[in-house]
Design goal:
alpha+beta, Ubiquitin-like (UB roll), five-stranded mixed beta sheet
Length: 104
């Protein structure tokens, strides 16, 4: 089982077991310090906004146009911004480091 390294909104890092083959959002919304994921992965609410560590950016697929458009409307958008509902966890992403973005 791959591990997801999650930096919560208080700056604490957690090593979290993540299921391969499911969206990162699924793992993050199960955590007490995780994300809301209100739309359930439909790429419409941005409550699963995370920052992907720059060293991992090239290892995940680029965002599609609907994700990019939604992210660019956010007050806390920056390089590395992604919606965790759009990233599939795989064994190859073992150790992926993400920071949970501030609430909008």
């Amino acid at each position: 089982m791959p591990t997801l390294k999650v930096i919560d909104r208080d700056g604490q890092e957690h090593d979290v077991p993540a299921r391969s083959g499911v969206k990162i959002m699924e793992t993050l919304r199960e955590l007490d310090y995780g994300i809301a994921a209100i739309c359930g992965g439909m790429c419409s609410c941005a409550t699963c906004h995370v920052y992907v560590d720059p060293t991992w950016a090239s290892k995940i697929p680029a965002p599609m146009s609907d994700e990019r458009e939604l992210l660019q409307e956010l007050a806390h958008y920056k390089d590395g911004s992604r919606l965790s509902c759009q990233i599939d966890m795989t064994d190859a992403l073992d150790g992926l480091r993400v920071t949970i973005a501030p609430d909008e």
